[in-house]
Design a protein that fits this description.
Oligomer: single chain
Strand order of the largest sheet: 1-2-3-4
Shape: globular
Number of domains: 1
Radius of gyration: 17 Å
Helix content: 10-25%
Strand content: 25-35%
CATH architecture: 3-Layer(aba) Sandwich
Largest sheet: 4 strands, mixed
Length: 116
């Protein structure tokens, strides 16, 4: 599928680097990156993404939450595996490797007990 996409992009006069692989690992062979854009939500931001951002590089990814909406998060990398940022919108598609059912309590999310 990636090869077919690359061929179609070339017919349009575009020549992006097309890589097929485990997105959670990024593509260290071509790092550092100015931008990393994830179209699927993650419960934990893969360290590889942060490590592969150049200083000032931008990571855009939805964060999986127990609230029914996944906030789209924009982070700016420091070039040393760290980043700072904030939520800028919402979406809801999960990364395949993180779709396994795990309780949000196990992930460190707060739990609320409703009484009344």
């Amino acid at each position: 599928m990636a090869k077919r996409a690359e061929e179609r992009l070339h017919t349009l006069g575009l020549a992006p680097q097309v890589v097929a692989g485990n997105g959670e690992q990024g593509d260290p062979g071509h790092a550092p990156y100015d931008r990393i854009i994830s179209t699927t939500a993650v419960r934990e931001i893969p360290c590889a993404w942060l490590e592969q951002l150049r200083p000032g590089g931008v990571l855009l990814t939805p964060i999986d939450t127990p609230f029914g909406c996944d906030p789209l998060t924009r982070m700016v990398g420091d070039g040393h595996g760290g980043a700072e940022g904030h939520m800028v919108g919402g979406t809801s598609m999960k990364v395949r490797g993180q779709r396994t059912a795990r309780s949000y309590g196990e992930l460190g999310w707060p739990s609320w007990e409703i009484t009344g």
